[in-house]
Fold this sequence. Notes:
With 67 residues, the protein is an all-beta fold. The chain is 0% helix and 28% strand. It contains no helices and four strands. Strands 1-2 form a two-stranded antiparallel sheet. Strand 3 and strand 4 (62-66) form a beta hairpin.
Amino acid sequence: MAVSRVPSPPPQEVNTPVAENWCYTQVKVVKFSYMWTINNFSFCREEMGEVLKSSTFSAGANDKLKW
């Protein structure tokens, strides 16, 4: 994410309050997906038709990214 500062536009009137700087933010969104194969599926202890829940995964030490 990049933040840039640009000068404020000139004031319309002398007594009009004007911000020192105007800022804008550029955001880059990266979407991804993962696919993996489950080996030894026949050894799963769940009954047919029951829900199989996965553990929570995270991206390294960043615990804000979980799936």
